[in-house]
């Protein structure tokens, strides 16, 4: 059946459930078990610590005396940690995902006309990424360290960080949606 406009009518089709639990509950529990196992086997994980470890590895290769005299680089330790492989996996997975979905993903339009050139987009992405990593290091960790590892360990600071992160995200999304609806 179709409407007068020629657009086919959408009808609801009941879907048989094979489980009494929603799929997100299963994956949430699975994620919690894997996170707890990771903490038990390797210790708390986080991504942002990999970047100063990478700088430390470079400094040890080019100027070992500076690297050994820098207490922050000494405290961060070696680059060969599970988090490094997590970062490598994130990069590889992102690349594969982008290539696999190239035709399925709609082309995004630029929100700000000043970012029309690829050079401006790459510059702004680099600056934004640098500021995120800087903020994560100042905060003593990133969202995976504070939220995932922190909440898995029932850390009060992990819960506070999660509440702040989600509250800020909700407020930011509402503000951006209001601006877009107003045509700004």
Detailed description of the structure:
This protein has 184 residues and is mostly helical. Among the domains are: 46-100, no CATH class; 141-184, no CATH class. The protein is 65% helix and 0% strand. The chain has helices at 23-41, 50-62, 64-69, 71-76, 82-100, 118-138, 143-152, 156-181. The chain is globular. The two termini are 40 Å apart.
Brief overview, please?
The chain has helices at 23-41, 50-62, 64-69, 71-76, 82-100, 118-138, 143-152, 156-181. With 184 residues, it is mainly alpha-helical.
Topology:
Elements: H1 23-41, H2 50-62, H3 64-69, H4 71-76, H5 82-100, H6 118-138, H7 143-152, H8 156-181
| Mean of residue pLDDT values | 80
Number of helices: 8
Q: What separation lies between the terminal Cα atoms?
A: 40 Å
The SSE string, one letter per element, is HHHHHHHH
Shape: globular
Largest sheet composition: none
Oligomer: single chain
Can you give the helix content as a percent range? 55-70%
The number of strands is 0
Structural class: mainly alpha
Q: Which regions have little confidence, pLDDT < 50, spanning 5+ residues?
A: 5-10
Radius of gyration: 22 Å
Share in β-strands: under 5%
Defining traits:
mainly alpha
């Amino acid at each position: 059946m179709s409407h007068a406009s020629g657009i086919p009518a959408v009808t609801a089709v009941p879907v048989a459930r094979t489980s009494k639990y929603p799929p997100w509950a299963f994956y949430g529990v699975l994620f919690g078990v894997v996170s707890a196992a990771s903490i038990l086997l390797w210790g708390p994980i986080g991504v942002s610590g990999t970047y100063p470890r990478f700088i430390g590895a470079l400094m040890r290769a080019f100027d070992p005396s500076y690297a050994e005299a820098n207490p922050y680089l000494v405290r961060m330790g070696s680059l060969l940690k599970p988090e490094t492989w997590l970062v490598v996996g994130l990069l590889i997975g992102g690349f594969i995902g982008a290539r696999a979905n190239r035709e399925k993903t709609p082309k995004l339009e630029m929100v700000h006309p000043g970012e029309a050139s690829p050079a401006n987009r790459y510059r702004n992405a680099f600056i934004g990424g640098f500021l995120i990593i800087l903020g994560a290091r100042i905060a003593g960790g990133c969202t995976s360290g504070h939220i995932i590892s922190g909440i898995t360990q029932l850390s009060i600071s992990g819960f506070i960080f999660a509440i702040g992160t989600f509250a800020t995200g909700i407020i930011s999304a509402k503000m951006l949606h209001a601006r877009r609806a107003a045509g700004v």
